[in-house]
Amino acid sequence: MNVKTVKFFNANQVAIILNISKQTLLRYEQKGIFPQAKRNSVNNWREYTENDVRELRQIMGRESS
């Protein structure tokens, strides 16, 4: 059986990857520039997948090759 694991990033990690502050990340989400992040069912923290980060980079015009 082949099980694929998904890595999740928190808001701080995504902000670092995107080279923006965590406040900017949350503000963009609040203003609808970024889509709402999924929430962890245990602690309600925002969770981002690698695909989510890729999408956010595209929205910012910082798509990596």
Distinctive features:
65 residues; mainly alpha; Multidrug-efflux Transporter Regulator, Chain: A, Domain 2; 2 strands
Give an account of the 3D structure.
- The chain contains three helices and two strands, in the order H-H-E-E-H.
- It has 65 residues and is mainly alpha-helical.
- It has a single domain, classed as Multidrug-efflux Transporter Regulator, Chain: A, Domain 2 (Orthogonal Bundle).
- Helix 1 packs across helix 2 (22-31).
Overall shape: globular
N-to-C series of helices and strands: HHEEH
**Rounded average pLDDT:** 92
CATH topology: Multidrug-efflux Transporter Regulator, Chain: A, Domain 2
Low-confidence stretches: none
Instruction: Calculate Rg over CA atoms.
Output: 12 Å
Write a short abstract of this structure.
It is globular and about 40 Å long. The protein contains 3 helices and 2 strands; from the N terminus they run H-H-E-E-H. A two-stranded antiparallel ribbon has the order 1-2.
Write the layout of secondary structure elements.
Layout: H1 11-18, H2 22-31, E1 38-39, E2 46-47, H3 50-60
Antiparallel strand pairs: 1-2
Helix pairs in contact: 1-2
